[in-house]
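Same chain as my last thread, 120 residues:
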Amino acid sequence: MFKQLQQRWLDRFRVDDSTGWSDIPEDPLSDQVMDMVWDMLDKATLNARKRKIIWPDGQKLSINLSVKRIHEQHPAFPNDLIESNVIDWLVQVIPPDIYTEQQIDELNRLKQKWIDTYER
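reply #2:
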C-alpha cells in the first residue's frame, strides 16, 4: 500500500516531456485542498514510531486528529480529500539530511506500517 501511495503522489506530478504538460486531468478542488493541506503541514514534523504528526504549535496529533484540525479551519473542504492529502504528505516527508540510509529505511518502514494500519 505504501508503494501505491508513493506512486499515486508521483503520478500526480508526472509531466509529459514532449509537451511539458501533465496528462492527468486537473481538479481545482483537489488542487486547492492539496495546496492548503501541504501549506498547513509545511512546518510539521512527525514521530513515526509514536504515529504522531507534530504541529508547529507542539501538538502531537494522529492522522484522524490532524484531519479534524484541518477540517475545523477549512470546513468547506471534504474530509476525504483532506485525509488523502495528509496521508500523501506523510508518505513524502523528507527525512533530515543527517539521517543514514538505515535510518531512512526505518522511517519509511514505520510510515508504511502506520499508513497500512490506519487504512484498515
